[in-house]
Write a structure and sequence with these properties.
The complex is a heterodimer.
Chain A lengths: L1 H34 L4 H16 L1 H35 L1 H6 L3 H34 L6 H29 L8 H14 L4 H22 L1 H32 L5 H43 L1
Helix pairs in contact in A: 1-2, 1-9, 3-5, 3-9, 3-10, 5-6, 5-10, 6-8, 6-10, 7-8, 8-10, 9-10
Chain B lengths: L1 H19 L4 H31 L5 H26 L3 H34 L2
Helix pairs in contact in B: 1-2, 2-3, 3-4
Classes of the chains: A mainly alpha, B mainly alpha.
């Protein structure tokens, strides 16, 4: 738990540093504009370069990190699924225990493959379109990047809906916490996290339904640990996205509208990235749970 | 404030020169202009920019300094350019501005290279 807290703290302090830098740079630019009005055109462009280099670096690094994670997890799936499926089929009773559906494994693998090959490049494209738009406002791609983001969210949420259909159709597992207790919490998340909120609660429900069924095999604390590890990239991306949007709101009075707009748009793209990361996490947790169950079954 | 008074004195001196020796006026005007420009730079502008750099030391290392230096260079080129075009040599003024623009851009070239590298790292598979 302490390591997780330390990790979060280091993440937030690094990001906060670059946001304080934005505000200081914006003030410096205001002073320069006042002193040398004829330089203001230059200040705007140079400031933009500095912002991309300093402030957007956490976003770029996050995107690269998710790309790498996605690649390695897709590789893990490709290598482990044949073995896993064969083992499950041999041990037999796993099928009855966990309502094991080979189609679901195939689906999870397909979702990760899809995310790696199509969704992530599209998020990158949306991000680059935003930057290009602000770099040269005459050629504007803002509608295109907006459309890319909404399309991506629609695709991701339909994949999650398909997941929940797969799992609830099995019907063997049920959502652990009682509905009455979890419903207000879900509503709170849905209201307060823009874009991905409802998606987060939906997939939480789906996963909860699945993992509570696996709980008696795996053990509660192991599940919590697994979730804790798996959810970190999502939390990281979500925090980053929020910090960008806060920063955009903070610097709006000081600077030209382009700067705050680009930070706001990058924040939105990061929300989409967070949704895509969720897909990966879902498939990962699912696979690891199957591994654990398989090992336990083969030991008994 | 003392500087304002000194500028007024220079202005009066120039008026006297124009009245007394009109033939020498352009060259004396240019000389006085350069002298005053150097004086202002030494006494006001450079200390002020140093002070600004100290105030904004939170800006990461090369960028704050680069911004200030480019603005400073741009201001100097602007004033020299204006003086040249006032004397009727606007083609020379144009050249002066061009040279300073190239100088400022060459300061920023390493950062531009870094920018391009950052953006291409995203799309290389």
């Amino acid at each position: 738990m302490m390591t997780i807290l330390d990790f979060l703290q280091s993440l937030i302090s690094g990001v906060l540093y670059s946001f304080i830098v934005v505000i200081i740079i914006a003030l410096l630019a205001t002073v320069l504009n006042y002193l040398f009005p004829s330089f203001s055109e230059w200040t705007k462009q140079l400031l933009y370069i500095v912002i991309i280099l300093v402030v957007l670096r956490p976003a770029f690094e996050q995107l690269l990190l998710i790309q790498q994670l996605m690649k390695s997890i897709a590789m893990l799936f490709v290598t482990s699924y044949p073995v896993l499926t064969a083992g499950m089929a041999i041990s037999g009773n796993a099928l009855s225990l966990l309502n094991f559906q080979p189609a679901l494994l195939l689906f999870a693998n397909g979702a990760v493959f899809f995310a790696d090959k199509l969704l992530l490049p599209l998020v990158t494209a949306a991000l680059l379109f935003d930057i290009v738009t602000r770099l040269n406002p005459l050629i504007s791609y803002s509608k295109l990047s907006d459309m890319l983001r909404t399309t991506l969210l629609a695709v991701v949420s339909s994949i999650v809906a398909a997941y929940s259909i797969f799992i609830t159709a099995g019907g063997a597992v049920s959502w652990g916490i009682s509905e009455a207790a979890s419903e207000p919490l879900k509503e709170l998340i849905r209201q307060n996290i823009p874009f991905v909120g409802s998606f987060v609660t939906d997939s939480m429900g789906t996963l909860g339904r699945y993992s509570s069924g696996a709980g008696f095999m795996v053990g509660g604390w192991l599940l919590v640990t697994l979730w804790g590890i798996a959810i970190l990239p999502v939390v990281q991306t979500l925090l980053l996205a929020f910090l960008y949007r806060w920063c955009a709101a903070l610097i709006e009075p000081f600077t030209s509208s382009e700067l705050s707009d680009v930070l706001d748009d990058i924040g939105r793209s990061l929300f989409v990235l967070c949704a895509i990361t969720f897909l990966m996490i879902f498939a990962f947790v699912y696979t690891v749970l199957f591994f654990i169950v398989y090992v336990k079954l083969s030991m008994t | 404030m003392a500087l304002l008074f000194q500028l007024l004195v220079v202005f009066l001196l120039l008026l006297v020169i124009r009245y007394a020796v009109p033939q020498l006026h352009p060259i004396l005007y240019s000389a006085l202009f350069l002298f005053v420009l150097a004086y202002i730079m030494m006494n006001v502008l450079i200390p002020f920019i140093k002070k600004l750099r100290n105030i904004f030391h939170g800006v990461p290392e090369p960028y704050g300094q680069l911004l200030l230096i480019s603005a400073f260079l741009f201001f100097i080129s602007e004033s020299i350019m204006q003086h040249l075009s006032e004397s009727g040599y606007s083609s020379l003024a144009n050249l002066a501005q061009f040279v300073v623009k190239i100088a400022i851009l060459s300061f920023w070239l390493p950062e531009l290279v870094k920018l391009i590298q950052t953006l291409t790292a995203l799309i290389t598979p």
